[in-house]
Amino acid sequence: MVSRFALLLTLPLAVACAPVAGGGDAVSSPAPDAEGALFVAGKFGNTLSKVDLASGEAVKTVDSCANPHELATSPDEKHVALACYGGQTVDIFSTADLSRVASIDLGENARPHGIVWHANGDLYATAEGRKSVFWIRDPLGKAETFEFGSGQEGTHMLAVAPDGLHAWTTNLGSRTVSLIDLKTRRAPQSVEVGEEPEGIWLSDDGDTLWVSARGSNAAFKLDPQTLEVRQRIETSNFPLRITVRPQGDYAVTSNLSDGGLSVIDTATGKVVRSIKVSGPDQAEAKTQVTILFSPNGERIYVAETMANTIAEVDFASGRVLRRLPGTGGGDGLAIIE
């Protein structure tokens, strides 16, 4: 864990940020306008939890696997896939009752981390221990696996093209981003992008690749095919993840070291505001890790891993609406309506 900084994010625009609820315990209350469920991977407790968004309560928690990290939901929302970072499998659970329905072995020392359940029905996952990406075809059926080497250290997070022909990875140890051809098996293309690139997101139109480099305190806009850096954007401290709002108008980084989010206009590449999620009395909560938008883009969920909470933030106002249970060091997040 990096050292924490005393600096808090400020809000440069006239957008209010209400004080957050105090203390590290989950503060949840019913939200009549919230629907669906949030799934939380507890990486310290080796758990998977389901949180009902209407009531704000955890309705089910089950044992998962060693050091579970990222989550992805199936296109029909009936299943959630979990990358077992402390092992070598991708495990699949029913979203209805969290029963485990499949466990897909990726081989010795796989350490899967980043995961995408594509609209085509297939799963894609990084295998950090093998310096590779796996394509899992028909994961609920034959579960055929195809491995593609990145040749890079710390192949951690990934994005997949809408047509499923290419994947992009961030490689922490090599300080690179890689473009991997999933059909022709041509040698991957890798370029250095800042210090410790980790977060990655491909725009829905496939035209822009967003990367956050936590060691550079910066986000980058890349050309997905050439990996040319189009723009460098200074964020706040330690931008661990980056995501793009479903509407495509804003990109957001989660800044682990100062308890906030940086909001970037995707058209201009400018940071237009900052959202303070954790206050100065919540040192434990200044550990923003995974971030996830609601499908309508109105709320953003922020995993406060060390505090065992998930902050639910109103995106328009920047207000923390409530804190949901993040049992066992909640990290990976997934959502269904």
Automatic annotation (TrEMBL):
Secretion signal, residue range per the UniProt entry: 1-21
InterPro entries, per database record: Haem_d1_sf, Host-pathogen_enzymatic-act, Lactonase_7-beta_prop, WD40/YVTN_repeat-like_dom_sf, YVTN_b-propeller_repeat
Keyword Transport among record annotations: no
Matches recorded under SUPFAM superfamilies: C-terminal (heme d1) domain of cytochrome cd1-nitrite reductase (SSF51004)
PROSITE patterns xrefs: PROKAR_LIPOPROTEIN (PS51257)
Keywords linked to the UniProt accession: Signal
Protein name: YncE family protein
